[in-house]
Amino acid sequence: MPDPVIVVANGDLRPPANQKCWPAQEKAEQSVMEAIRREGREVRRAHEFDPAKKHGFIDSQKRGMEVFRSIPLDAPLVVVEAVWQYSHHLLHGLYTHRGPILTVANWSGEWPGLVGLLNLNGSLTKAGVKYSSLWSIDFTDEFFLAGLRRWLRGEPVVHDTGHARSLNDRKLPPRAVELGAQLAQELRRNKAIMGVFDEGCMGMYNAIIPDELLHPTGVFKERLSQSALYAEMTRTPDVEALEVRQWLERRGLRFLTGADPETELVDSQILDQCKMYIAALRIAAEFGCDTIGIQYQQGLKDLAPASDLAEGLLNNVDRPPVRAADNGRVLYDGQALPHFNEVDECAGLDGLVTNRIWTRLGFDPETTLHDLRYGEPYGDRFVWVFEISGAAPPQHFIGGYAGAVSERQPPMYFRRGGGTVKGISKPGQVVWSRVFVDNGKLKADLGLAEIVELPREETERRWRITTPQWPIMHAVTRGITRDQMMARHKSNHIQVAYAPDRAGAGLALAAKAAAFHEMGLEVALCGEAE
Prior knowledge:
By secondary structure, the chain is of the alpha/beta class. Helices cover 35% and strands 19% of the residues.
């Protein structure tokens, strides 16, 4: 008799998120387990529902180690994800597991299950752990069932990734090669500093670039503390924070405020967010940072409101001026300070290179780090929902600041509140990219996408089935199907930057690819790359 299939479910670190998302997880698990049983296999869960915690997730590294001690090392193991998950809760067990591993997610926008799956897959890829992966709306479609049958027979599930082609097989325009080489050489010669506010966030092992891989690019980490950021916030006068808010309101940004700080955005939360923006710029300038990343959901969440407002402003060239406390000079005057959300260092390196390439081309250099959240067909095209938790520059929105609104972050994630920077991304051409670690090598995937404007009612529907407080981008990836994107993308995050037109997007992509190649990264061009 074949060994029983073991199912585990990894979750969040925050109890309210685990409790609220548990019904969706339970439904997905039951569907997956029923599909396995229909194939004639025995299946059991490795850990039970906890009535005291009111959920059945692995919710810490400690709990994960307890669970994995009871799992036979050679058992076929399925990780089912319908929610965001902290990969480090179970990465230790997957490192040493000898049996076949299958990661599965429900194709739903309700909670970030697809986002959690992509993070886990990226973390396993970086760790060198072999795994297969599947996704499905209801776990009855042939794509899922055929893959499940293969895996149950002991075969790996292999997806089509023919859309990703090595840069070595392509000839880039001479101007792009020259520009990319110049940037790479300057980085090596002059160096750059990546400011990291407490490394490692939300279990994203895939988001940490080992120093020995980063340093040859010319970029070096300045490891900063979020306690220093909070201390600098406490030293920032209220009057300076109010000036930031007033500047934003003059530009048209609307703050949707209320009276209850537990569930609504209140003035004191906005004030603290403006102080965080000022403090981040002053610390970045003090240490000479060329890009910074704030840890966002962990660390500061028990002390301060969310960092989304600060992050979105930092990524925007046109933003409230902040002066040095000692000599009054405007910090990073006329520039964006590229910010990588959730301390995703892969996105930090990517954003730094993008900012410099785009600036030299005369393009708007603002970048957004989105989650690859969900997607559905609309008309005759598959339109992705790229959606991040608010750290988006207003330059990317229809209407700019006047098209943006700041809404309170969901209490399940942020007890102390704070507003997002919410808007609808403007139609146009973008270059998307992802830097990742695979088999001890630093790699980069790049491609093109068209950002489309959907009818307002369709946008509102997509917001309702995902997270309505967050900014949204409707993206059509060129030359890449839904399943190809899921199979190849080794991260929950995707980096995007606008170009003025299709020709400009092709040139920017080529220059960025050339820069990465010259910096020592292994580059792949995905889908239609010109």
